[in-house]
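RETRY 2/3 - previous attempt timed out on the joint model. Re-submitting the same 227-residue input unchanged.
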Amino acid sequence: SYELTQPPSVSVSPGQTASITCSGDILGNKYAYWYQQKPGQSPVLVIYQDIKRPSGIPERFSGSNSGNTATLTISGTQAMDEADYYCQAWDSSTSGVFGGGTKLTVL
Amino acid sequence: QVTLRESGPALVKPSQTLTLTCTFSGFLLSTSGMCVSWIRQPPGKALEWLALIDWDGDKYYSTSLKTRLTISKDTSKNQVVLTMTNVDPVDTATYYCARRLASVGGFDYWGQGTLVTVSS
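RETRY 2/3 succeeded.
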């Protein structure tokens, strides 16, 4: 079955750029999606179809996807961005898969 | 506005069948491109996709759980139901339902989740 691999944790200083990667076999041939989940809350879609931001998501969130790696980039990271981040893709058109999640620490 | 709400038992005994209901509003599952999925998250662990049903009634399941899962919809009630047979303590998790629009591809609206504990 298809697998997505994320680093367990990423740390960033306030105001700096955070990059969270998601690796999967020829992931660049699929769309990647990114979700933010804060403690005790449901996930929120922050990037869809590799690079698009849903309404209401700040411009500091951006995405890319090429080769085997999709990347979520947060520019000018703020304390409120501290959360778990999950990547997601569709193995076939209708078989979903999530990455293991990355805990972003802003310190 | 779009809302989804999960409901079901908080505690289930091992080997029993778990039935969860997702009641939604703000959209019609009969609309072309509309889908609802179930996703779960064991305490402290990652999200796991379980199943999806689309506007046409087509159903898709996690490969590892497909023999135990059934997803169905009641369009008139705006509900999607997930049943999981033969539950085990490892099935203890928060279960979420979420909407997927074909034009978006990801899950743009989520319910608040319901915690199900499997224990004797």
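Residues 49 and 58 of chain B are 16 Å apart (CA to CA). Closing ticket.
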